[in-house]
Give the backbone structure.
Amino acid sequence: MMKNLRVGTSIHISGIVQGVGFRPFVYTLAQEYQLTGWVRNTTAGVDIEVNGDTKNINSFIQQLQNHPPPLAYIEEFSNTPKNAEDFKAFEIRQSKNSSGFQPISPDIAICSDCQLELHTPGDPRYRYPFINCTNCGPRFTIIKEIPYDRANTTMRDFDFCPMCKSQYELPTDRRFHAQPVACAVCGPEIWLEGGEQSISNGEAAIVAARVLLSEGGILAIKGLGGFHLACNAYDEQAVAKLRLLKNRPAKPFALMLPDITAVEDHCELDVIACKLLTGPKSPIVIMSRKANSRIASGIAPGQKTLGVILPYTPLHVLLLERSENFPLALVMTSGNISGLPLIKDNDEAIDELRDIADAFLLHNREIEIRCDDSVLYPIKETLLVLRRSRGYAPTPIRTQSPLPPILAAGAELKNTFCLAKGRRAFSSHYIGDLKNYESFDVYQKAIRHYEALFRITPEILAHDLHPDYLSTRYAQKRAQEEGQRLIAVQHHHAHLAACMAENAIQEGTPIIGLAFDGTGYGTDGTAWGGEVLLATYQQFERLYHLAPFPLPGGDLAIKKPWRTGLALLHMANMLDDASQTILNQTQRAILLHQLETRINTPMTSSMGRLFDGFAALAGVRCEISYEGQAAIEFEMLVDRAIEGSYPFTLQKTQILWQPALEALLFDLKYGTPTSTIAARFHNGLAQLALDVCIALKKQTGIHQVALSGGVWQNTTLLIKTYQQLSRYGFDILLHQQLPSNDGGIAFGQAIVAAQQLKN
Ligand code: ZN
Ligand code: ZN
Ligand code: FE
């Protein structure tokens, strides 16, 4: 009989392989194939050594590569055969510190196994609000340091009870080395505080919280990545009260529904939306609202959509349990003071939200990193990412070619930063608007946290061209202190480069870029935003742009779109044709003076501002309470049956909007419905996109068109443009993983900076 030849092999795997049940999986697999050796986590990934016969080792490797645990993501897999060693068995070894970095799993929504246990009477974790396992639970938000071991998380404050300890140590258990594992005996607890009362019994706290919500109260809830403010979503008064207290008059609120059946009651649910809602990342998903939904209209005024999220922690599951007297639909909006960062600590919440919330549902598992809910919008076959945060960050975006150690500081609004090295670009979770000390502080700490977690010391700092962005100032100050090389990247070039890199465009390949945006600092010092660029990663040429118009009052014009409307009329000498528009005589007189004297009246070529101006003139809205409100409501009015369009014409390098304005005034004069006006404006822009691309294709032969910038979150315009361009054979590049808004800028900055260094 032939003796089995024992051989050895050592395997190194990198990617998301920690905190996702990888080692128990390897352990079980090794047992199955009768292999001896060991597995251990390192700061660079997972190392494995196995001995056994060749056939079994090959099968083992194949299984590892092709069927890893559901939440694992393998980036690199290397395998070096060697001589067999004398291992007695297969074991899981202590983690080892090594150089190199290691991606960290994002937070994962409660899994079906844990849901089942949560609802099984007699289970040791029956109704325990922190049940989790290797397949689900907190990760990124509780990690203080790597490697990902319990002592390096905020769970280090809790000592195991004997049951949790034995499950944690048993390789075949679903909780083997699940760092946040806990139970009611040894783990975190919830309690309710509010008014005079404090309820420390967890079950009673949930009951009281539900009573408060069903009676119209506002509840602050500590969740996974921070606090939410919740109220009954059927209760128009409660919603109005929350809006008033939070000083958020109109921006849509997210809605948490107990299960997918409830989602179907209120929304047009399709397969993609269903998969997203029930998947491990659990984002807010935007869907069309059903006409018969009884959800309070105050949730999303002026909108035809709802942003819905399902319970993603056991605490949410318990809070939204179906019962007769409970509303089954909660507003779930971020727990913060308007414009400030999401609140994550108990004391901070009680202090900051005491005038808003009637009670606080708290717990004592600390949140290391605050992380907002992600927001996705599936339309047709594409998926628009509006906010990439919890569940997605900090999973790196894989780049085509390796990058030197770069920190890209991002933009100002909807800020994210991006820390990159090699082929990994860690696009950060959502930081928010860097307009105040608090957000700026959170931003700086988050950057240092990423640098420590991923062991990257940036040698290059990329930033926006805008001299006054706090992100720009941060990069400049750091470079001054630490000596990194600084690279400034133009805003719209960064937008487009991000889109190109997500679509794996080759280095040196030029594309046509339609950067339709709010505003970004141009190379001439004016505010750009309606830009057609011929771009590679390294450079760009500004081939067309919207004919500039004044923004009387600068930021004030953004808040009051009627100012922009009047400025357009003034610029086009069409004031006399517009007597029937919204503007009253006093407003006109003041503004005309400002326009003529040009005091605080910057020029812009912004598409977002053009939208504002046209929307105001069409009578949609004169003042806004959140970014883009006028444009969003203008979009909602579009009558899809209307085919006509307002003319935008090309003259040299300018896109003239004056003919479109003239057509709008004509329609207004004859009492054309606003829905028709809205349609003709959108159709006109889609036609313009096509005209520009055809003109450029003639000149350059290029047929690849990238769409980036905040305006492309307008799905009506996006779909119309997509249809026009694809009918003419253009190859359209859309963002895949990142938002087209300024949340995608940092990644683009990193890409451009790396390419420019190659010169
Ligand atoms: Zn689980
Ligand atoms: Zn326990
Ligand atoms: Fe932008």
